[in-house]
């Protein structure tokens, strides 16, 4: 992250400052990919709850492709290579130094071998030639570009393994995951590694400045990852675009990790030139030289009163300056965003969808409401990976607690309420182990608004068998 850009003098406020942070009642056991694996909770009395009529089944329909798990060992292997490059080139990978170009060549070689079309863009700053690396995956709508990027340079004082080898390696492994999946994305996927960020985002500024107005209009979003493996980590989400913010918060809610709005890096990384050009931006950050508070240490672990990264912009930012858990979680969150926002929809082979598209209003801080789907024509029990697609429109989704209720009356918690989740809408797919349920019967989506001031409605929901 660049120290050249001005730090924010104040932090951004939450939309409702009177909200306390924390999750709603009840535990949630999930896999790393966000699959709910069988939490059963009691159903409060249904008296007075609004109920939508059951819906008939329909034929196979699109469902969102699941993001792959990103092997953290692979990400760490890339970091090991970047460390070796720095060690062999004067201890750093800074702009204008041989370690930077060697880092770019390493990443380019991986992408070329995987089938990407790569371009090295040259620019000049501080009297020295700099380089950006751009990689395009074939296919996808050329008029809808989702770009994912990270700066590749370090400061001259050290190898820059967290800042920003971590972001660069995580983005690289996600790009390689796209290739391994032979993805046929809905949107065109582009990846970028920026030079001279530590001099004031010079590489990304140059790239954006060369885009025509027509080219800029094709971008559906830019995702930025700068420092995602801090040794005393926090989990911070950019709040610049509510849709992108919501995608990241969905992922972290699915693995029961609380997040906070990112403020330390405002305007100090490569998302800023894109945002200034009118392109929607988002991203993740695990913290730099700000101090972790006691409250943050309580919910995330780590050491209160110490920086998130004590080696920020120092020679000790080596391969030992990485928290593997944060690196793993953030790498998987990147995959979730790329697949959700860019790869898009696939048709499940042989899947049968049962859907209810009737709107159900959700009263503010009121009683729970339900929407029903009747499943018929199945044999045996429901699958262990039942797909529950949810589309709820709501102006403050942190208010909402959501359950799937099976034909037996058992409830499977999909989402807890959270006072710190200020994004709008819940539009996602949950994976539920419903194998204890008989497939046929009436299933319900049960939603309750537990906070004041905001309302919304169930737009639609579906079960895919």
UniProtKB/TrEMBL annotation:
Its cofactor is Zn(2+). Residues 1-27 are annotated as: Disordered. GO terms for biological process: proteolysis. Keywords: Calcium, Disulfide bond, Hydrolase, Metal-binding, Protease, Secreted, Signal, Zinc. Belongs to the peptidase M28 family. M28A subfamily. It comes from the Bacteria. PROSITE patterns: P_HOMO_B. One of its GO terms (cellular component) is extracellular region. The keyword Protease applies. Residues 347-465 form the P/Homo B domain. Its main location: secreted. This is M28 family peptidase. Coiled coil: none annotated. The keyword Hydrolase applies. Monomer. GO terms for molecular function: aminopeptidase activity; metal ion binding; metalloexopeptidase activity; serine-type endopeptidase activity. It is found in: Secreted.
């Amino acid at each position: 992250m660049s120290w050249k850009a001005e730090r924010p003098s104040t932090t951004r406020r939450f939309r409702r400052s009177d909200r306390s942070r924390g999750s709603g009642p009840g535990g949630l056991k999930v896999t790393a990919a966000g699959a709910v694996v069988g939490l059963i909770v009691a159903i409060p009395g249904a008296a007075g709850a609004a109920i939508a009529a059951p819906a008939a089944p329909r034929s196979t329909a699109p469902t969102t492709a699941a993001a792959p798990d990103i092997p953290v060992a692979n990400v760490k292997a890339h970091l090991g290579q970047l460390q070796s490059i720095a060690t062999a080139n004067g201890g750093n990978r800074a702009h204008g130094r041989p370690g930077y170009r060697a880092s770019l060549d390493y990443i380019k070689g991986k992408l070329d071998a995987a089938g990407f079309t790569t371009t090295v863009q040259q620019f000049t700053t501080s009297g020295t030639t700099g380089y950006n690396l751009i990689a395009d995956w074939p296919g996808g709508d050329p008029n809808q570009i989702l770009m994912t990027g990270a700066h590749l340079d370090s400061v001259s004082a050290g190898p820059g393994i967290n800042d920003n080898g971590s972001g660069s390696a995580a983005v690289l492994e996600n790009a390689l995951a796209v290739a391994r999946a032979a993805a046929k994305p809905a949107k065109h996927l582009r990846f970028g590694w920026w030079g001279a960020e530590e001099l004031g985002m010079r590489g990304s500024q140059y790239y954006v400045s060369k885009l025509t107005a027509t080219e800029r209009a094709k971008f559906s979003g830019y995702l930025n990852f700068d420092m995602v493996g801090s040794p005393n980590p926090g989990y911070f989400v950019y709040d610049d675009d509510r849709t992108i913010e919501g995608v990241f918060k969905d992922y972290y809610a699915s693995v029961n990790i609380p997040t906070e709005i990112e403020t330390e890096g405002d305007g100090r990384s490569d998302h800023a030139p894109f945002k200034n050009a009118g392109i929607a931006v988002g991203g993740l950050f695990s913290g730099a030289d700000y101090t972790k508070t006691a409250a943050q240490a309580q919910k995330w672990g780590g050491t209160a009163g110490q920086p998130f990264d004590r080696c920020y912009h120092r020679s000790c930012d080596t391969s030992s300056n990485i928290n593997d858990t944060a690196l793993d979680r953030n790498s998987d969150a990147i995959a979730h965003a790329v697949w959700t926002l860019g790869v898009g929809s696939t048709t499940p082979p042989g899947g049968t969808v049962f859907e209810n598209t009737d709107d159900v209003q959700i009263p503010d801080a009121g009683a729970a409401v339900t929407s029903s789907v009747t499943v018929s024509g199945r044999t045996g029990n429901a699958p262990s990976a039942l797909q529950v697609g949810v589309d709820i429109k709501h102006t403050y989704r942190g208010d909402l607690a959501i359950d799937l209720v099976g034909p037996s009356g058992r409830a499977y918690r999909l989402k807890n309420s959270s006072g710190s989740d200020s994004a709008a809408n819940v539009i996602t797919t949950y994976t539920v182990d419903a194998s204890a349920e008989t497939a046929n019967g009436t299933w319900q989506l049960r939603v309750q608004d537990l906070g004041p001031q905001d309302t919304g409605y169930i737009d639609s929901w579906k079960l895919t068998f």
